[in-house]
C-alpha cells in the first residue's frame, strides 16, 4: 500500500470525512485501552515484543508501551511525526534511521532497547526479521491493502510461534455497513471492490481521492476465516465488544451514523436485546449483522 502524502486528506477540514477522522484521532488512546482489554483475555500483556501495525495517531502504542517493547509502524510519515509531538512523549519514541543508499527504513532489531521506536514503511514489505514479535496489532488496516495475501505472508513470517494477532476490520456484509458504509457514509459502497468504488463513486463525486491506492475494500467473515484458518486458532470478540459499546466505551465507534444508532437503541431500550443476541460464533449474526469484527488469532 503506497500512498504519496503530498497532502494528508485526513487533516483537510474541507474533506467530507474530516469530522469522522477527527473523532477517531480524539479517541486514539481509548481505542488502545479497548484493544488491551480484549488481548488481556488471551495473554498477560507484559514484557512482550509488540508491533502496532498501522499505528495511526499512536494511542494503542502508548497504551502498550507501559509494559512492553513496542514498535509503532505506519506508512505515513506525517502520522509518525504527529505521534512524537502529541499522543506520545518525545522522550518515549524515536524514529528509526533511513539508509542513505536505498531509502528503506532500517529496523534496530535488538529487543534490549528500553524505549519504543517509530518505524516508517509498507505493510507489504515489513522490515523485520522472522519470528520477531509476540503480538501484532492490526486495527482497521487490512481493508486498505492492495494485496492481502502478501500482507498475510509477511505478518505470519514475523510473528513468533504461539504468537498472537489482534485484528479489527469492518464487515463487508453487515446490514449496517450496507446501509451506511463506514468510510464514506453512503449505502451499498461496502459491497463494492476498490476499482468499482473508484470508477463509479470517486471519479464522479470525490475526484481528489481518486488516485489514492488505500481506498477501503471490505472483507467478509468467511473471507477472513479462509485467510487465517490454516495457520491460526481463531477467536471472535463480538459479545464483549457489544457489551462495552453499550456500557459507554468511547474507543469503539466514531461515525455519526453508528453513534446515533447506538443512542437510538438505548432510547428505545433495545440495548439489552442486542447484547443478548451478540455472540462469538461463526454464524448468521456475525456474518450479516456485526458491523466490525474483533479477532484474536493465535499462531499454531
Protein model, in words:
With about 300 residues, the chain is α/β, with parallel strands linked by helices. It has one domain (about 20-180, about 220-300): Rossmann fold, CATH 3.40.50.150. Helix content is about 35%, strand content about 15%. The chain is built from twelve helices and eight strands. It has helices at about 20-25, 30-40, 60-65, 75-85, 150-160, 175-180, 195-205, 220-230, 240-245, 255-265, 270-275, 285-290; strands at about 50-55, 70-75, 95, 115-120, 135-140, 160-170, 230-235, 290-300. An eight-stranded mixed β-sheet has the order 3-4-2-1-5-6-8-7, sandwiched between helices. Helix 9 (about 240-245) runs antiparallel to helix 11. About 35% of the residues are buried.
Spatial order of the strands forming the largest sheet: 3-4-2-1-5-6-8-7
Structural class: alpha/beta
Give the overall silhouette: globular
Question: Based on the structure given, which CATH architecture is correct?
Answer: 3-Layer(aba) Sandwich
Quickly name the level 1 CATH class. Answer: Alpha Beta
How would you characterize the largest beta sheet?
8 strands, mixed
> Low-confidence segments, ≥5 residues, pLDDT <50?
1-6, 87-94, 97-114
Average pLDDT: 87
> What is the terminal separation in angstroms?
28 Å
Roughly how much helix do the residues carry, as a percent range?
25-40%
Amino acid at each position: 500500500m503506497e500512498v504519496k502524502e503530498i497532502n494528508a486528506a485526513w487533516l483537510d477540514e474541507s474533506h467530507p470525512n474530516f469530522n469522522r477522522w477527527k473523532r477517531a484521532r480524539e479517541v486514539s488512546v481509548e481505542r488502545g485501552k479497548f484493544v488491551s482489554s480484549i488481548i488481556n483475555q488471551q495473554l498477560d500483556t507484559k514484557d512482550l515484543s509488540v508491533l502496532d501495525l498501522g499505528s495511526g495517531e499512536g494511542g494503542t502504542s502508548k497504551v502498550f508501551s507501559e509494559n512492553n517493547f513496542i514498535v509503532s509502524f505506519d506508512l505515513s510519515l506525517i502520522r509518525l511525526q504527529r505521534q512524537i509531538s502529541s499522543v506520545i512523549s518525545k522522550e518515549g519514541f524515536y524514529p528509526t534511521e533511513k539508509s542513505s543508499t536505498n531509502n528503506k527504513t532500517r529496523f534496530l532489531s535488538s529487543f534490549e532497547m528500553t524505549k519504543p521506536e517509530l518505524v516508517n514503511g509498507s505493510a507489504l514489505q515489513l522490515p523485520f526479521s522472522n519470528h520477531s514479535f509476540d503480538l501484532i496489532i492490526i486495527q482497521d488496516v487490512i481493508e486498505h491493502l492492495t494485496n492481502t495475501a502478501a500482507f498475510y505472508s509477511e505478518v505470519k513470517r514475523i510473528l513468533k510461534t504461539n504468537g498472537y494477532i489482534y485484528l479489527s476490520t469492518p464487515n463487508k456484509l453487515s446490514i449496517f455497513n450496507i446501509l451506511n458504509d463506514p468510510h464514506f457514509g453512503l449505502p451499498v459502497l461496502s459491497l463494492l471492490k476498490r476499482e468499482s468504488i473508484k470508477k463509479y463513486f470517486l471519479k464522479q463525486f470525490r475526484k481528489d481521492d481518486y488516485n489514492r491506492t488505500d481506498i477501503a475494500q471490505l472483507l467478509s467473515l468467511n473471507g477472513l476465516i479462509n485467510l487465517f484458518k490454516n495457520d491460526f486458532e481463531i477467536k471472535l470478540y463480538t459479545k464483549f465488544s457489544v457489551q462495552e459499546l453499550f456500557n459507554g466505551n468511547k474507543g469503539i465507534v466514531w461515525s455519526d451514523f453508528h453513534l446515533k444508532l447506538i443512542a437510538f437503541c438505548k432510547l428505545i431500550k433495545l440495548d439489552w436485546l442486542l447484547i443478548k443476541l451478540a455472540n462469538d460464533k461463526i454464524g448468521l449474526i456475525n456474518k450479516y449483522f456485526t458491523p466490525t469484527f474483533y479477532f484474536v488469532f493465535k499462531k499454531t
